[in-house]
């Protein structure tokens, strides 16, 4: 048996050398739940993980005509609210938030209308904006591709603005289980999230969302492409005093994007305003870099 070890080791080395490089991940596309009665408008669940729609309600999630021309779940009457992730823009990069909106069969229309309406006052205060105009509509969904007919002037403002606008639409619509890619009519290849991955900032925070009520411990989720995959977070009280901190490693980093999840405990804080900061620490001087600030309401200290 000893004579077999060197050839076996050589074989393993060859196989390892042929392995593809780490490519990272954009993180799982969220699945919008069919209904939700507990998520406040402008906020989302503290875990950042949407509740999957039940099999009987998935057909109504995208809410647009199918390839057969038959409206999806037209006979169902939505009840309550639906939690929808919206991708806005901050400093030229995509940034998500989550809204609880009145439930409707046409959820894709609902999401596009919310994109066009733009961020709330609290969201605007953090630098969020939108480039998507009113009247943007999905005309059909077939084989995982949503076809969209943009309104007049949709591609105005230059190449960069037009591409960022399309990225907002693609990242928002592909949260629905029936949509994997988006085609912009009258002509254009279908594109998906990968085609706009370069428009993500170094750190994306999917939870908590702006204005959310959080208790200790607060769960922080998202994706990141940072040095040694190390993501840090801290909680600040209304006076800007750090009351809790933690760090974790994303599933990939230093040249590839990975998903991360961590919890931060905090103490000695009266219920009220606060901020969750997510960042990476500079290897050169220990300063905080690529900081994402999420204003929240602290409900308990744990």
UniProtKB/TrEMBL annotation:
Domain of life: Bacteria
Keywords: Signal
Cleavable signal peptide: 1-19
Compositional bias (Low complexity): 48-75
Residue ranges occupied by any GerMN domain in the UniProt entry: 108-195
Protein's name according to its UniProt entry: Gmad2 immunoglobulin-like domain-containing protein
Region (Disordered): 26-76
InterPro entries tied to this protein: GerMN (IPR019606), Gmad2_Ig-like_dom (IPR018911)
Pfam families: Germane (PF10646), Gmad2 (PF10648)
